[in-house]
Amino acid sequence: MLARVRQFFAERSVMEVDTPLLSHAAPIATHIEIMTIHFQNGKKGYLHSSPEYAMKRLIAQGSGDIYQLSHVFRDGEIGERHNPEFTMIEWYRVGMPYDDLIQETLDLIRLFISESSISTYTYAEAFEKFAEIDYKTASSSDLQQIAAKHNLSHDPAWDKETFLHFLMGFLIEPQFKGLCVLKEYPASQAALAKTVVKNGDHIAERFEIYYNGMELANGFHELTDPIEQRKRFVEDNRERARLGKPVLPVDENFLAALVNGLPDCCGVAVGFDRLLMLQQHKKSINDVLPFAWELS
Predict the structure, then answer these.
(1) DSSP state, 275?
(2) Is the pLDDT of residue 148 over 60?
(3) Does the predicted TM-score (pTM) go above 0.85?
């Protein structure tokens, strides 16, 4: 399957690259925990959770369309669908329209599973269909009532953003059947995606793809503004501090690449091991990893 993935990109003239697993700075995300490496001289390094920053530095230097089959690392993630070390397929298309990348991602997924039916929802449509609420006008109290109605254990003190994440993960995603594309996220959940105004609402040009409720892919129309990117890093670190998590160093080399100019591009990351699980009809990621960590 590794060979088939490589053939998929070769046929599309997307070049394979190889970036370091170990970095002087960590990818910053509120809810992703990074593995830290301590050197003998007292300095620290970080095992990446995604090759995104390094790949974008290559694109800024003129690499063009690129992909990588990369081992990535996330602390505290272990279970039937998670392993602390796993394989990610990540690629970037320069100048490719956002919707075209969604289609290309579905084409890659079909190397592993034969599924013809596809459902597509905007974030707003998913909340309306599966939670029967308009997330844009809903208060945290409204969302708390939805959680209570469905007997989902929760903290009534959560803010609106936390409830949105919670209901998406525990109420809405489990109801997705077959291949499902979710797009047009709230601007507050943009991560590294561009935001646009559509019908008066600020939305993120971000998508995720699921199969029977299992997340397989996360993609963006990539943010290229270094000022906005730094602002988001600061906000993520501020939220990490509020949650009692360590504040992470900002990757200044990545931001410098954005200052020098990142061309308009779209990118996506797909979990290789989860695709292999589905292809082999396995319930646990341990069943397809040659060397997996024990669940306990």
Answers:
(1) H
(2) yes
(3) yes
